Amino acid sequence: MERYNFKDFEQKWQNNWNEKKLFRAKLDKNKKKFYCLEMFPYPSGNIHMGHVRNYTIGDVLSRYKKLQGFNVLHPMGWDSFGLPAENAAKQNNLDPKIWTQTNIERMKFQLKKLGLSIDWEREISTCSPDYYKYQQIFFLELFDKGLVYRKESYVNWDPIDQTVLANEQVIEGKGWRSGAIVERKKLNQWFFNITKFSQELLDGLDKLDQWPNKVKTMQKNWIGRSFGCEINFKIEGDLPVNEIKCYTTRPDTLFGFSFLAVSPDHPISTFYNENKEFLKFKDDCSKTGTTEESIAQAEKIGFKTNLLAINPLNNKKVPVYFANFVLMDYGFGAIFGCPAHDQRDLDFANKYNLEILPVVKPENEDNTFKITKLAYTGPGLIFNSDFLNDLKAPNESISETIKILENKNIGKKKINFRLKDWGISRQRYWGCPIPIAYNKQNEALKIPLESLPIKLPDKINLNTTGNPLEHAKEWKNIKINGEDCVMETDTLDTFVDSSWYFLRFCSPKNDKYGFSKDEVDYWMPVDQYIGGVEHAILHLLYSRFFTRALENKNNEFNITEPFLGLFTQGMVCHETYKNEDGAWLNPKEVESSNGKDYFVKGNPKKRVKVGTSESMSKSKKNTIDPEEMITNYGADAVRLFILSDSPPEKDVQWSDQGMLAAYKFIQKFWLIHQSIKNEIFSTNENKMENTVEMEFQKFTNEIIDKITKNLNNFHYNVIIANFHETYNFLSKLKINKIKKSILSENYLKILTIMSPVIPHIASECINQIQNKDETNWPNIDKKFLEKKKLQIVVQLNGKKRGLITCDANTDEDQLLTLIKSDGQYKKFFKDMKIIKTIYVKDRLVNLILK
RNA sequence: GCCCUCGUGGUGAAAUUGGUAGACACAAAGGACUUAAAAUCCUUGCCGCUUGCGGAGUGCCAGUUCGAGUCUGGCCGAGGGCACCA
Question: Residues A222, A188: contact at Cβ < 8 Å?
Answer without folding.
Answer: no
